[in-house]
């Protein structure tokens, strides 16, 4: 049976051993010697053959064994020294040593690959450990520090070091869609914080921002998907990866790494970059959440109302500054001491039912607190809020008191209006009778008694109008000494028997310009305030004097002005006031009196009147040492006495022939005015209402020189509206407004606009005649006619 070629070759190589090579070498060398010995029959041929056999053995061992053994030995030595790249370099043959060398080279290669695989595995493990350490460090940084900018810089630096890249960057999304280089590593100076790239899909960063997908470029020189921004071209960037930084709302921006050399980023590296980007997004969310929490905390902490949080057992776990201040306001050290009674029941009811309790009022040390309780079921806590409503309750009571006083004032004004109409009739007729000569003495005495009684009644109506604040400011030249002197008797009755009134006027005093009624109100209000401060009696001292205010005085008195002033001082020996009371003294509705005893408007009215007279007021007081009110009015240069009211005209009042339209709804008063003015020679037309007056005006076009009209009339047309309509057709018409009381419709602006005079009721026949003549003769701008 024939043997297959492969098997034959295998047997041949198995036969071609080192021993056979040695035998072959010896046989090859001694064969010629044998032939020579056989041919020439040499006697020493055996010796020569032996030497040749020895030489052949030496050569064969050296060539076929020792050389290869040396190569194997050297290779083994170098391999033992760690040179895994060493190989024997022996040719592949069929002998055992060649097979051994081949096996040895294969083993060295396998060992080298194994070591390389181990090194790569160790490197990958090290990189993964570095990446995990980087992520852990960034997360720790984000948890311990609320500094997003520092965190982004730290992330850029650590990532660049971990991945061994040339550049790293954090791009922040701007409101307009652009991308700002907010942080990074490896970039040139002046790039970070200034470089802005477009955020469209044409760039790698814009694509990542808009799609949320990772942007991976292996070689920017051949990549055609994205345009390379100038910044990347300037830095020679070839490869890169960009990852979107996601937040709960819009993406914050993009995180990217780039290299100058071509590089393929592994999936593990891309995943690592995603983790870093998520850490940055989480840090941004935390910063925003912290800002919101701080805002909410500041809102609660800076809330002017007390805010507290209580657990189910009533323990206070939080309270703001207002709660502490509220406790201190009632002399308590901690907010837990001001909680209302039965707090256990309140907490239990709120947490059990889940419903809030609102406007629960509790009193403590004279103060009233309004409490609101709101349960937070998920946290099993109760939020409570408290407000000191003492002042509000007082204001409510004062408002009710003020509304009541306004109602009384309206009633008083209405009474004064009707009363003034009757007094005008009484004074008009008595004045007319007193002007007649040769009256019997007994009749003259009776008329004087009636006239003075009417004058005192008119004074009462003026006080009613002052009380109801229906007076129009009527400035005139005044002597404060006479005003105080004329009010002394009334003030003494007002103060009562337990308070002594002292007033010693100076011999000379400059005049002031002001409204008599308003200044009287100032004195009355200050006197009443002093009386209430002297419940056990005392002394009220009123004085007036001239003072010169200089620059040094202004330095310590902010409202003062340089110049000459008249100081009205009202000083009492009462209980005095502390600094807190002084700081609120002139505020409307502020009062230290019990509820129902005052409106808190008295001193506020004083302050307003003084300001209206271009002056100012100063107060000095201490508890237990009384109070001093100094009121400053601008002084005039003249020192002459102010003109006094003329009760009965001593000389006849000049009359005239002009035509006068009298509009008055009170028939008797209209008849009296007609009689007085007709006696003075005037031609009189009359009407009982505004509508009737318009009809009379149409019947007598361009004939009427003066309109004398009451302010308040029936049928829907007031004196003001009537005057405005008539003035529109005849601008040169003169006007006199009369009224028993004056609403806000009568003002200096109205009088200036209509070139009118104001004649308050009651008035005498002489005062009416003077007002009419003055209005007809002069170019009146804005004034009012009081008692002459």
Essential attributes:
788 residues, alpha+beta, five-stranded antiparallel sheet, 49% helix
Quick gist of this model?
With 788 residues, the chain is of the alpha+beta class. It is 49% helix and 18% strand. The N and C termini lie far apart (170 Å).
Can you put this structure into words, describing what you see?
There is one protein chain. Helix content is 49%, strand content 18%. α18 crosses α22 and α19 (690-699) packs parallel to α20 (719-729). Strands 3-2-1-6-5-4 form a six-stranded antiparallel beta sheet, sandwiched between helices. The radius of gyration is 58 Å and the shape is elongated. With 788 residues, it is of the alpha+beta class.
Radius of gyration: 58 Å
Largest sheet composition: 6 strands, antiparallel
Structural class: alpha+beta
Number of strands: 23
Relative strand content: 15-25%
* Sequence stretches where pLDDT stays below 50 over 5 or more residues: 8-16, 595-599, 640-650, 780-788
Mean pLDDT across all residues, rounded? 79
Number of helices: 22
Helical residues, percent: 40-55%
Task: Summarize the SSE layout with pairings.
Layout lengths: L4 H11 L2 H23 L4 H36 L15 H49 L3 H16 L3 E7 L5 E7 L10 E2 L6 H8 L3 E3 L12 H5 L4 E7 L7 E7 L7 H35 L4 E6 L4 E4 L1 H9 L13 H11 L3 E8 L2 E10 L4 E8 L1 H45 L6 H27 L8 E3 L1 H16 L3 E5 L8 E3 L1 H18 L4 E12 L1 H4 L8 E10 L6 H5 L18 H11 L3 E6 L5 E8 L24 E5 L3 H13 L3 E5 L2 H10 L6 E5 L8 H11 L4 E6 L8 H7 L1 E5 L4 H13 L11
Helix pairs in contact: 2-3, 3-4, 4-5, 4-8, 5-8, 11-12, 11-18, 13-14, 14-17, 18-22, 19-20
